[in-house]
Amino acid sequence: MAKQNIAVFYGGRSVEHEVSVITALQVMHNLDKNKYNVMPIYVTKDGRFIKGNQNFLKPEFYKNLEQISEPQIMLRDGSVNSENFLIKKQEKIDCAILAFHGTYGEDGCVQGLLEMAGIPYTGCGVLASSIGMDKLAQKKLFSDIPQVKLSNNFPLFVKPANGGSSIGITKVKNAKELKDAIEVAKAYDSRVIVEESAEGFMEINISVLGNDDKLITSICEQPIASKEVLTYDDKYKSGSKGMASAKKLIPAPIKPATAAKIAEYAKQAFMAIDGSGMARVDFLVSPDEKTIYINEINTLPGCFAFFLWEKTNLPFPKLLDKLIELGQERFASRNSRITTFSSNILASLGQGLKGGKVKN
């Protein structure tokens, strides 16, 4: 059986650019080389799409991002088109794995580009990806699921409406801190969320996998923060493996009934945004486990939350197989729909123009 060409897209115009590189390296090293030809597609911080070579699989290659200047590419007709002076080459992409985080990658922008280019891709579609980045939109869609309330009573959390990796998020305890935190959040997004702090609650995360209503969930985890807020450093600077190296308890020390309720809410949230492929859903749970709040859904979690699936007996290479399968399944389903039909509306267009108006 011929190998499939799998393009891994990562980087991008995002404050989470480096996080994306970590996830992409994890992905490229765990793709089964007996099944796939790995094609790195690196998007620079200024938005250039570059088709990489084997050097792009080496962590040390990214120590100086400014020196990366391979030939740029175009995406067209289900293929990547590389042009380098006299060399022109077109390579079919069987599926794209999206390893972006943050704006212009996780938020539906690249998903729309791939839809237009006719390239199957892993994970959520344009709408679900956009909602997955927008915490205010999520709050409206998750109205049937208990959630932390928007509030003005201290202590509070202030966060950009769009963003991730805990960037721009601050816990505040008074009006002066609130003003400063809002300014910080506004540096990352024009809209800001101010919500109550669920004091004493523990964070519990779970991952969802599947398309439509054929969904399964992973084991639950409890991330451990070094401070009151789970910081960027907690998530990514404790090692080179991204979220896989962050401190956490797996399985989370919660009752089976609580884990089952979280799984139920996670599936409900995934379907509410019209999710596909996978997502990680984050919750807050009270010490007595009687109160469960949904915090947010993340359609492209760091390293695809593979550490949750490994503990659910789905190793990372097999998880990637499943994501590719789900992405191609979704692509085939969308392509089976009617998107155009024959019409003679333009037949008399030449005679119908007068004074800049079209005559019907």
Number of domains: 3
Question: Termini, distance in Å?
Answer: 54 Å
Inertia-based shape: globular
Helix and strand content put the structural class at alpha+beta
Which radius of gyration do the C-alpha atoms yield? 22 Å
* CATH architecture classification name of the largest domain: 2-Layer Sandwich
Q: In percent terms, what proportion of residues is strand? A: 25-35%
Share of helix, binned: 25-40%
How many strand units? 18
Strand order of the largest sheet: 3-2-1-7
N-to-C SSE string, H for helix and E for strand: EHEEEEEEHHHEEHEEEEHEHEEHHHEE
Supply the CATH superfamily name of the largest domain.
Answer: ATP-grasp fold, B domain
Rounded mean pLDDT score: 88
Task: Using the coordinates shown, work out and report the CATH topology of the largest domain.
Answer: D-amino Acid Aminotransferase, Chain A, domain 1
A few lines on this structure:
The strands form six sheets. The protein has a four-stranded mixed beta sheet. The chain has helices at residues 17-30, 109-117, 126-133, 135-141, 175-186, 232-236, 256-272, 306-310, 316-335, 349-352; strands at 4-11, 36-43, 49-51, 73-76, 79-84, 87-92, 95-98, 156-160, 170-172, 192-196, 202-211, 214-217, 222-223, 248-249, 276-285, 292-298, 353-354, 357-358.
